């Protein structure tokens, strides 16, 4: 119907209408002229909102009828209905097509047919008039998740904390996606509907009911041994066997963590293992005793002069030829103290020695030897004593490269902190940040002392204080930096979790996944020693529960190699 010059021209036949709220009056021009007023046309849906309730994915609800009324004195020549913002609602039938006379109604039928789990909402919108209603639609879809297999000792937990299964179970899930995780922390093997997800999870897209199986689960560590004291050193003896050195003595464990033998000591400083599986043990007085892999004494060496070796760190290493290198601090730190490097043959005979003196008081920072014995590296720091205050005044830190006969090839200064050496002569130093969240600055130099990289971890991400760091002691393993330590709780000196991680190689600082260690008593933990045990890169970790000032007990754990590479 259109209007021209005040006339209502009824040039179209009346459409077939389902309902009418006004009598159809053919009373001539005056009434028709009223239909051409300036009032806006309006289309109204009989409900402002509707909730279809809960339905399983893949099914559909019953049809719901919505009535659209033309509540204006004008005809609407082109009316239409649509659903916006969701594909979970479907118009199954509609009489709201094109023309709708004033005061008349049409009908639309809608179903809820969700393709995915979760809450769904949409708008049923009617268009064609200057004023048109919309209706808010909503519904909830769920899908069944069947966990058909859970290994003994493991559990399956939903990532949204909605459920946990320790045996086969079934749960309704009202989400489009869900990630399942296996626990306790470890390495799961999933099957059936699983897609790979971070941290070893099983990702499910809930476009229907899903079935999943946890076929296998491996814990982070394969065994644990508790001790009264945290290890000072852990080292591989080959064939999965390890040797542990702590303040009480030396112990050998087999590949399952069972004790093979133990020798008590109370005055030992350092331990090193030769490539043929012999154990050299350095005592605080400078005596070196070597044992075979079964704990029997092979030889003993006593230095001609007493040692102040209790002030030294990283002062005992071995080469592939079976030689043992010892770095001793001799003299008194109250007067004069020098470093003495001596080399013992595989039979315990001194081959050569050299004194290193870069200042009045010298302390060791590290000792390294190329795997084939071609060169030896000594790190140290030199001080002088102030005549008036008697305080130690820093002079320099240095690294010296020597030939197998003890001849110095070069000495380089500005070494930051303690130094660890690879079997190719490269050197790594780490300086820890003690303030939460921790982290560190590290430097990696080549065999000639040239910087390959200097870098630091993120100041806001930790992972914590560094208590120990090592490099592989097997020439078959690529040199990588392995760090461990503890967290410090903000605003306190209280220990949080212990931690360890692979931190990269000679190419760059590249922190890998962090493995955290919680105390079973909730009193903090730390990592005091680390070592690779075999070519499979199993990692033996030693540490303590509590804190250094308030020790509860020590521990030794053998970790799965995947702890260094897989996000959890």
Automatic annotation (TrEMBL):
Residue ranges of domain Pyrrolo-quinoline quinone repeat in the record: 230-454
One Pfam family cited in the UniProt record for this chain: PQQ_2
SMART domains to which the protein is assigned, alphabetical: PQQ
Highest taxon above the source species: Bacteria
NCBIfam families: choice_anch_D
Protein name (record): Choice-of-anchor D domain-containing protein
